[in-house]
Write a structure and sequence with these properties.
With 239 residues, the protein is an alpha/beta fold. It has one domain: Rossmann fold. It is globular, with a radius of gyration of 18 Å.
Length: 239
């Protein structure tokens, strides 16, 4: 099956059909091109970083795995008996998860979900990046209030990428006219397919804490990695 403007989905499908060297190219306005080996999207529990393993342990009740990709996190939760729904906007990824045995799979955009409620929303691999920018972060936190049961939680991974702007002497060089430094532009390629440019957000924990408070969530950092990445839990407070 051909997938249009779905480089991630097409790469995942090729991997499933035997191309174990499939690689997605990521362009950004911040750094040189990067590559994602598609094999990484198929990692097993013992291959996952400690942050991800902790996040999976913290999942409670009905779980929505947002941006589920090839379904590696959903499969672990499913094997543990959790009620998990895997959500991805990529048609190829959704088809792959069904092939891999994920029981509840949904194609769609989390910003457009209505009429569904969960105890946990899981956003790994810098998943909160789907907010795009600070304005989008506010929209996201407001929107997902309706997707969470009272006392429900967001478990999300992000990174403070301020270190990428450090000079050799340790000072930080920022263009104060360029907006928040964690707002990045991406384009993803695989063979003849590309996403086109899109916005992706890396949010430092101090600002995320401010946004959480503004939109009615408690905030705590559960894990901090070596390169500015962290796992945060936001719990929806009762009205």
């Amino acid at each position: 099956m051909a997938y249009k403007n779905d480089p991630v989905g097409a790469a995942i499908q090729d991997y499933l059909q035997g191309d174990k060297g499939a690689t997605i190219v990521v362009e950004s306005n911040l750094t040189e091109n990067d590559e994602i080996p598609v094999a990484y999207l198929f990692r097993a529990l013992d291959e996952m970083p400690e942050l991800e393993q902790l996040a999976l342990e913290q999942c409670q009740g009905q779980v929505l795995d947002v941006g589920a990709g090839a379904g590696c996190h959903s499969l672990v939760l499913q094997q543990r008996g959790a009620h998990v729904t895997a959500l991805d906007i990529s048609e190829g990824a959704v088809d792959a998860m069904k092939q891999r045995g994920v029981q509840r799979v949904q194609q769609g955009d989390v910003f457009k979900l209505e009429g569904q409620t969960y105890d946990t929303l899981l956003l790994l691999m810098n998943g909160i990046g789907i907010a795009g920018d600070l304005e989008g972060l506010g929209r996201f936190l407001e929107h997902v209030r309706q997707l969470l049961h009272p006392g429900g939680q967001l478990l999300l991974e992000s990174s403070d990428i301020l270190y990428m702007f450090e000079e050799e002497d340790g000072s930080v060089l920022l263009d104060l006219n360029a907006g928040y430094y964690g707002e990045v532009r991406y384009n993803m390629h695989y063979k003849d397919q590309q996403t086109g440019e899109f916005n992706w957000l890396f949010i430092d924990p101090a600002i995320l804490q401010d946004y959480a408070a503004e939109y009615g969530y408690t905030f705590e950092v559960l894990y901090e990695g070596e390169y500015g990445n962290y796992l945060a839990r936001l719990i929806l407070q009762s009205a």
